[in-house]
Amino acid sequence: MSRTASEIATQPGCWRRAAEAGAAFDGLPRPGERVAVTGCGTSWFMAIAYAALREAAGQGETDAYPSSEFPVGRPYDRVVAITRSGTTTEVLELLAGLRGKVTTVALTADPRAPVMDAADTVAVLDWADEESVVQTRFATTALAFLRAGLEASGPLPAGVKTVAAAAVDAELAVTEPLDEAVVSAEQWTFLGRGWTYGLAQEAGLKMREAAGAWTESYPAMEYRHGPISITGPHRVAWAFGPLPEGLAGEVARVGGTLIAHATADPMADLIRAQRLAVALAESKGYDPDRPRNLSRSVILSP
User: Fold this and answer.
1) What H or E segment, with its residue span, contains residue 123?
2) 6: which residues sit within 8 A by CB, 6+ positions away?
3) What is the rounded CA–CA span in Å between residue 275 and residue 176?
């Protein structure tokens, strides 16, 4: 088993620990604050998911930006930065530019990283750190940590499970066999609505990073506005969360394969996409622990 596959399998336990830690952590956004969430790559997609979930919970206006595109002059009460390595150049430069202007909190896996001094407050999720270049368990654990903070501050949006319940769904997601039609497909389109759109983007990224697969990601209601044109036999449309009305019939009409685990927590469903990425990589003779053209952290030259 690859190191990536081993790390994927530990996510239920990581989320349970995050549920306790996030509920007790004092530096997360408070209800009513105007918040921005930032990161790069996978961390940015987790930021998108959290921002949409926080707004849906009625806890305050929340935006998400890649760190390289952050509007520094826009007023916020708090900025949350997600960075597994704590060394990513764009994140560190942004936090340096925000120092003294806005309260910042960072989520990282490494207590020795430069981000420890760059942010006002840091949550260290070192139990979810990874040896793999491709992020899996740190990303979802960071989102679980942030979700737990929302739970501690007020009611969740209708239909959104607690992190504890999500961990139960994750137990099935790490062991359930993958559908053969999904494994043997030639193309995958991931779809989501609200907070699950960030998860759809992350699913597509995992498939590209680990397996070099042809994947795309869209808001679910945008799928019929063009993206459906590439769906057909041996191609998959995978929806995270509740399925929009009529979408199943549209996918069937064009001969595609629809995947929708509507009763599962969408974050647990992301585990299935992570496992698929590893399976495809291995079927092509790729090493999922050492993906092509990637490094654990992007550190730019001065």
Assistant:
1) strand 121-124
2) none
3) 10
Which residue intervals of the chain are DSSP H helices?
A: 3-9, 11-24, 42-56, 89-98, 115-118, 137-153, 163-173, 180-183, 196-211, 247-253, 266-283
Structural tokens at position 17: 């620990």
Torsion, CA 285, CA 290, CA 294, CA 297, rounded to 10: 160
Predicted structure pTM score: 0.96
SS3 at position 264: coil
Q: How many alpha carbons fall within 13 Å on the CB side of residue 292? A: 9
Q: What is the pLDDT of residues 112-166, one digit of tens each?
A: 999 999 999 999 999 999 999 899 999 999 999 999 999 999 999 999 999 999 9
CB 115 within 8 A of CB 81: yes
Reading the block at residue 122, the tokens are: 């840091």
Q: How far, in Å, CA of 240 to CA of 218, rounded?
A: 11
CA distance linking residue 258 with residue 245, whole number of Å: 13
Q: How far apart are CA 20 and CA 119, in angstroms?
A: 22
* Residue 179 CB burial class (10 angstroms; 0-12, 13-18, ≥19): middle
Query: 227 near 253, Cβ under 8 Å?
Result: no
> Across-strand partners of 258?
237
CA–CA dist 269, 190 (Å, integer)? 11
Q: 295: which 2 tokens?
A: 């490094």
Q: Is the predicted pLDDT of residue 299 greater than 80, yes or no? A: no
Chain centroid to Cα 194, Å, comes to: 13
- Candidates 254, 260, 211; CA nearest to 235 is 254
Q: Coil, strand, or helix at residue 194?
A: coil
Q: How many residues does the chain have?
A: 302
pLDDT at 99: 96
